[in-house]
Amino acid sequence: MPLHTTEAIVIGGYNLGEADRIIPFFTRRLGKIRAVAKGARRVRSRYGGTLELFTLGQLVFFESPHRTLHKINEFSVVEPFAGLKDDLRRLSRGAYLVELAGASIEEGESNEEIFLLLRDALTLLVLHDEPRLLRSFEIRLLRIVGYLLELYRCLVCQSALGPGAEPAISPTRGGLVCSTCLSRAPDSVPISLESLGFLRSVLHGGLEQSLAVPLADPCITNLQEVLRVCITHFFGKRLRSVAFLSLVE
């Protein structure tokens, strides 16, 4: 069996048999994979607490030919992101980030850009418990997977937005719809001009820069509604972690 070494983030885990665990990873080189940690649930397991959710490490695993379930040989912790596990709100936000990243690609599909985005987001979440970080992560992830929202012109009449406009975002059309054309995009969700400005700015900067962009609480709520509708439309389902996140917030 081929042996692989790659940077990886633990994005889940569930029991197998009496002593083993199946661990889903988001890896830097090979995308999303699942691997068995033999004996991980035994008291004297060599893994200890290394395979906990969010943990960033160096993964060495044996690839199983013609199968999607591989075998972990070694996992060395680089960063446990312990700060995400000690705070319920950070935990819920981190769980949302890893589920969203995992849902964005098929198993075995490589995407280093998403891996780096997730790694940076978890790093920042330890330091900044900020909803703007989640919104920035969402819009950048959608761009990476090819769902780039049109944020400058109405997708129905092609007109640019003028001062005092009352635009909306249509998930099915893939972006802006002006107030005149709303009847032709019934799934549209209103978006404020301030919220729209935030989305435009974060697409051209990094996650950390988005934390410096001023944003009023009503706009944060508005962006959450808009982006969750778009994400549900794009992935065709509501992520399980959203319920936990909504309960905590």
From TrEMBL:
Gene3D superfamilies, alphabetized: Nucleic acid-binding proteins (2.40.50.140), Recombination protein O, C-terminal domain (1.20.1440.120)
One GO BP: DNA recombination
Stretches assigned to the DNA replication/recombination mediator RecO N-terminal domain: 1-81
Keyword DNA repair listed: yes
Keywords assigned: DNA damage, DNA recombination, DNA repair
One cellular-component annotation, GO: bacterial nucleoid
Residues in the signal sequence: none
Family note: Belongs to the RecO family.
Function of the protein: Involved in DNA repair and RecF pathway recombination.
Record-given protein name: DNA repair protein RecO
Organism in which the protein naturally occurs: Candidatus Methylomirabilis lanthanidiphila
Gene name linked to the record: recO
